[in-house]
Amino acid sequence: MTTYVEDLLFKNQDYSKNTLAIGDYDGCTFTQCNFSNCDLFRYVFTDCEFVECNLSNVSVRKASFNDVSFKACKMIGLNFSQLSAFLMRMNFKKCNLQMSRFDTLKLKQTSFIDCELQQASFVDCDLKYSDFEDSNLEGAVFTNSNLEGANFFNAYNFNIDPVRNKMKGAKFSSDNLEGLLRNFQLKIS
């Protein structure tokens, strides 16, 4: 039997020691909570907000994030590819998502604003109209992904091959185009 929780604030909780009850969380806010190394198998979060939480190395297999926002969260090493794709919608602002995997997901219009995405993986991903503004994409992998209309304005340290991704209408800063040309081994001065 799962718990149903609605419109509650959870603050300064350490779920790495005392597990959050398995259930559906609707309209809840989690502030400064520690979920590191937790297993969120089949948890459902709808219209929830995570603020300044540590979700590093959390197992999200079959979990649902429906209209969930993450702000200033530490989320290192998450495999978002294991989420339940049904009604999935997430947004990230000022989050540390280093070494996270988003492979094969449909993430249309997802915001990754001012995020740390070093070594993140976006393989076979639908990122149409997503927003990577001001994000660090050093070592991030984009392969066979739909980046049409995506915003990379002021994103930095990226290396995106326009031959291996759909990129029609993607937006970049004019002073930061080197990351699109690196694979062509051109000398630009």
From TrEMBL:
Q: List, alphabetically, the Gene3D superfamilies matched.
A: E3 ubiquitin-protein ligase SopA
In which domain of life is the source organism classified?
Bacteria
Where are the annotated coiled coils located? Answer: none
Signal sequence region = none
Entry protein name: Pentapeptide repeat-containing protein
Database matches in InterPro entries: 5peptide_repeat, PA_immunity-related
**Which PANTHER family did the record assign?**
ANTIBIOTIC RESISTANCE PROTEIN MCBG, PENTAPEPTIDE REPEAT-CONTAINING PROTEIN
